[in-house]
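ok trying this again, last paste got cut off
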Amino acid sequence: MLDPLVIKLLSLALALLLAAAAWRKLTDPVRFRGILAAYRLLPEALVTPAAWLFAALEIGMAVTWALGWNPAATAAATAALLGVYTLAIGLNLLRGRIYIDCGCGFGASGGSGQQLSSRLLLRNVLLVAAALAAALPPAPRQLLLTDYIGLAGACLVLALLYLGANQLLLNAQAIDSWRKPQSGSNRT
């Protein structure tokens, strides 16, 4: 059993994360389609439908998290979607294809995005764990007004922590590129 405030916090945080991810895909579908094609995991004919499907799934899951509909099914669907993303990243890492955009946020100001790394695998595993934790049964307790005020603050703090963690991942990527010379052979 988990405190209902923690469950509500995880649910809202996942709703915001998925809504933001869908928003990026829908506001720049051509760019997302290019990112998805760069993974080289789907036949060319399936890239565009898959791009729209991912955005639709993220919207659907964001709504179900926000409304609290069937948390177990929503958690399973979210974990599965994040698992697909993690598998795609992992397969490309195994192929040595680290110099492609992960598609996580399209980068800052439309610039080069976050490249694939094992750090992204860890981040996704933590997100899957958060999704599954949000489906745990709540402890028997009523939320009070003070809980909801704290929830708003905690959502803001989690959002800032997530953005900060992503910035740290980008910084680590930049530092790694400064430390070792890039060779053209890794860009396949």
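PB: full thing came through this time. Residues 4-186 form one domain.
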